[in-house]
Amino acid sequence: MTEKCIATVIENRLLCCIENADWHFFLRRLDKENHVPFSPFHKKEIKPADLAKFLPNWRSLRWKPIKNNMAGKSESFAKDTEFEINVYSTSHGNKKHQEIIEAFLAFMNHS
User: What is the pTM of this model?
Assistant: First the structure.
């Protein structure tokens, strides 16, 4: 069963929070511009199939850790054709980079 993921549009980002998870992720355009197609998902549930439309190559992304995350938590990012995704540990989470990536991929595999 897929966990419930609620999306929020904040500036140029689509922030995605999975209920009861100790990690989150966000998408944004590579050029950092606003993306109107994010708007319908604001404060609504978003499914892996919806996210796959923005990240068609999600299975084969090349992840890079962000070494100096401002919160001191694990964070990694990857770039797809038009978007960048950042996955990160929440303030109460202790997942390492690879664990967060694996959690994201497990979530997406439910599409």
Answer: 0.90
